[in-house]
UniProtKB/TrEMBL annotation:
Pathway recorded for this protein: Amino-acid biosynthesis; L-serine biosynthesis; L-serine from 3-phospho-D-glycerate: step 2/3
EC primary class: transferase
The protein, known as: phosphoserine transaminase
Key words, A-Z: Amino-acid biosynthesis, Aminotransferase, Cytoplasm, Pyridoxal phosphate, Pyridoxine biosynthesis, Serine biosynthesis, Transferase
EC assignment: 2.6.1.52
A Gene Ontology molecular function term of the record: L-serine-pyruvate transaminase activity
Example of a GO biological process term: L-serine biosynthetic process
Chain's gene name: serC
Native species: Microlunatus endophyticus
Function: Catalyzes the reversible conversion of 3-phosphohydroxypyruvate to phosphoserine and of 3-hydroxy-2-oxo-4-phosphonooxybutanoate to phosphohydroxythreonine.
Reaction catalysis annotation: 4-(phosphooxy)-L-threonine + 2-oxoglutarate = (R)-3-hydroxy-2-oxo-4-phosphooxybutanoate + L-glutamate; O-phospho-L-serine + 2-oxoglutarate = 3-phosphooxypyruvate + L-glutamate
Family under the similarity heading: Belongs to the class-V pyridoxal-phosphate-dependent aminotransferase family. SerC subfamily.
Pfam families assigned to the protein according to its UniProt record, in alphabetical order: Aminotran_5 (PF00266)
Domain Aminotransferase class V, residue spans: 38-329
Needed cofactors: pyridoxal 5'-phosphate
Length: 371
């Protein structure tokens, strides 16, 4: 294959960032960050300017999700990976049930299994590229799955399991780009480095009154919970518009700017229409072109924000990703442990649908010249 193939400039997207996280950040957010560099960065997170920033984020999320009465916006440091440990420490009472249909849903189940004070979790699994939801089980007090499985590009419905227990949803790659009814969840948690147009290292959770009650009850029990994994501690700090320990102020500022943009543009309806348009273009191209095929076979389960495209055996997807990168189109590689001959395309709300169309034209150009 041609090692240094140059894609004509008129075919290239205006912005070549298609990563599945971290993802494209809007220039306007970077501009606000630069403007605040001398006044906000490097200042105390316990003082009014940063607390006002946290308040802006909490208000923006409350507006974006039209939070029902009694729900609380809580945030802390560490990202969604940390939140699995927080949930194991502060949300699961005795036993959890998990839908496992990808790398990230499996990791939450593994964290629950490793906790010595919890019973063995119930895990309902499905092959990669499909979905699995937990089923009602006596004695289970928390049901968990991913809204959007970032590793495979499969999206699952979000509705309460008809049983006693909290419904806890990992919204990391869906949040801010896929509409959801938060009243169907007790905890909807995510990180801001995807649709929410910021950097990683922060977790955010939208907690129902039932979840808040659970958090308080476990915190008052004899279970030992490190302060950094205490959801009760995070709640107490969040209602004061601060985090328990020092946050990355730049991450907060980027997130606040993105929330302002989303809410003034039409909220989740706007975001969902934009990601749906991008994904429609990608999947239509894959179905109409010889060689590529959508990895998620069922169109109803195909993510609007993460597109995974398999390629025929005679097409080297790794070569495609490498050649795209040489031409300024970056981060289209598949998830590292999935082991498939595929590309994975981030179609988050900051990605212009026209850039998805341009990407498909670039792929057509490479496929015609790969020999």
């Amino acid at each position: 294959m041609t090692a240094d193939l140059v894609i004509p400039a008129d075919l290239l997207p205006a912005d070549g960032r298609f990563g599945s996280g971290p993802s494209k950040i809007r220039p306007e957010a970077v501009d606000e960050l630069a403007a605040a560099g001398r006044t906000l960065l490097g200042t105390s997170h316990r003082q009014a300017p940063v607390k006002h920033l946290v308040a802006r984020i909490r208000a923006g999320l409350r507006e974006l999700y039209a939070l029902p009465d009694g729900y609380e916006v809580v945030l802390g440091n560490g990202g969604s990976t940390t939140f699995w440990d927080i949930a194991v420490s502060s949300l699961i009472d005795r036993r959890s049930a998990h839908g496992n249909f990808g790398e990230f849903s499996a990791k939450f189940a593994a964290a629950a299994k490793a906790a010595p004070y919890l019973q063995e979790p119930v895990v309902t699994s499905a092959p990669m590229g499909s979905i699995a939801l937990p089923e009602p089980v006596d004695g289970v007090d928390l049901y968990a799955w991913a809204h959007n499985e970032t590793s495979t590009g499969a999206i699952a419905p979000v509705s309460r399991i008809p049983a006693d227990g909290l419904t806890v949803i990992d919204g990391t790659s869906a949040a801010g780009g896929v509409p959801v009814d938060i009243s169907q969840t007790d905890v909807y948690y995510f990180a801001p480095q995807k649709n929410l147009g910021s950097d990683g290292g922060l977790w955010i959770a939208l907690l129902s009154p039932a979840a808040l009650d659970r958090v308080r009850r476990i915190a008052a029990s004899d279970r030992w919970i490190p302060p950094t994994l205490s959801l009760a501690t995070a709640v107490d700090n969040s209602v004061k518009d601060q985090t328990y320990n020092t946050p990355a102020v730049a991450t907060l500022l980027l997130l606040a700017n993105q929330l302002d943009w989303l809410n003034t543009s039409g909220g989740l309806a706007f975001a969902g229409a934009r990601t749906s348009e991008s994904s429609k273009r990608l999947y239509a191209w894959a179905e109409a072109t010889e060689g590529p095929t959508p990895f998620v076979a069922d169109p109803a389960l195909r993510s609007p924000v993460i597109g995974t495209i398999d390629f025929a055996d005679d097409i080297d997807a790794a070569w495609l990703a490498t050649t795209l990168r040489r031409n300024g189109i970056v981060d289209t590689d598949p998830y590292r442990s999935l082991g498939r001959n595929q590309l994975r395309i981030g179609m988050f709300v900051n990605v212009d649908p026209d850039d998805i169309t341009a990407l498909t034209r670039c792929l057509d150009y490479l496929l015609e010249r790969r020999g």
